[in-house]
Amino acid sequence: MGTNDNEESVFTPWEVRGKVDYQRLMKEFGTEPVNEKLLNRIKKHTSGSLHFMLRRGIFFTHRDMNWILDEYEKGNKFYLYTGRGPSDHTHIGHIVPWIFTKWLQEKFKTKFIFQLTDDEKYVFADKLEMEDTYSYALDNALDIIALGFDSKNTEILIDTDNAKTFYKIALPVAKRITYSTVKSSFGFDNSMNIGGIFYTSIQAVPAILESVRQGKNIPCLIPHAIDQDPHFRLARDVLPKLGYYKPANIQCKFVPALSGPDGKMSSSNPNETIFVTDDPKSIKKKINKYAFSGGRDTVSEHREKGGDPDIDVSFQWLKILFEPDDAKLNKIEEEYRSGEMLSGELKAILIEKMVKFLEDHQDAREKAKDKLDDFLVKD
Ligand code: TRP
Prior knowledge:
- There is one protein chain.
- The protein is an alpha/beta fold.
- It has helices at about 20-30, 35-45, 50-55, 65-75, 95-110, 120-125, 130-145, 165-175, 180-185, 195-205, 205-215, 230-240, 280-290, 300-305, 315-320, 325-340, 345-370, 370-375, and strands spanning about 10, 15, 30-35, 60-65, 80-85, 110-115, 155-160, 220-225, 250, 375.
- It has 18 helices and 10 strands.
- The chain has an 8-stranded mixed sheet with strand order 3-4-9-8-5-6-7-10, sandwiched between helices. The chain has a two-stranded antiparallel sheet with strand order 1-2.
- α12 (about 230-240) links the parallel β8 and β9.
- The site of tryptophan (TRP) has 12 residues, from β5 and β8.
């Protein structure tokens, strides 16, 4: 779905292979484009400014954003929910929706619930034991804290630490989803273990957790990457049957892997991926050695014909994450397209930006170790 029609294409919340066609996904999933009208509406509440991920179409599609804003304007404030399956250290693709969520939290002064699905990663990954997924959950929590979320307004919930709360809320959801729906929504075959079949009901829980706690319906907005959509399509179908609002979504594109511009970064190949814990030397080495380039084969050809930023992974990473300044990004784009800037020079700009970003992040991550207790919520 939403990928090229070749045998290599897979698109599920657990695996994305092949070229991703975002316009087609939007059609197949039935989501709305983030258009000028919506952006102008958001601006009214954000002192006229828009996050660069909105300006640049990184967050490109949504469901019910207008309803979220209608309710907000009536004084019925939403809360934010997103999450992470802790199967490894965090990589730079994961933090894109989190950075955007932080901006939303600041602008709309909302509560934020972050779910760490150690249970999910345990049932879906062959090689991980529960101790592994739990320790990655604690590790990944540091990245959320390091990004600077407000501890008074942010909760981090590791699923297995909240089993009692989650199970009770998940059961009525699970009761209303059939095996055949789950099979077709996620592409499971009969070999899927029954933990995997049940799991989606757990991911629905934080979308109504505030409503359950407060005993009244509270709108929920979920910023997330487009691959998680099947979970929330199911949640939107089931939750109204239980008397709750449908959660709204705003969805982003993927950060491409180093090897090419069309797909999704994955932890399974460390040479394709930059982890937020990588040191400057390995960042430099990976980018110089593996980053797919839109440059030409020879310098003279490049000077003559120019590079192609649209397929150049280094440029894409600057655009998605590491160069928030539009004027600077545009200048890089022009110079690269005209041939004035060489591929090596573009990579050097990215390396410098990234090293600075990740060094700051790693410092904040160290400090976050003392703050874990302010964020973690347990049964
Ligand atoms: N299933 C997600 C993953 O594998 C984790 C997750 C849980 C999540 N709840 C979420 C992601 C809400 C986005 C939004 O990473």
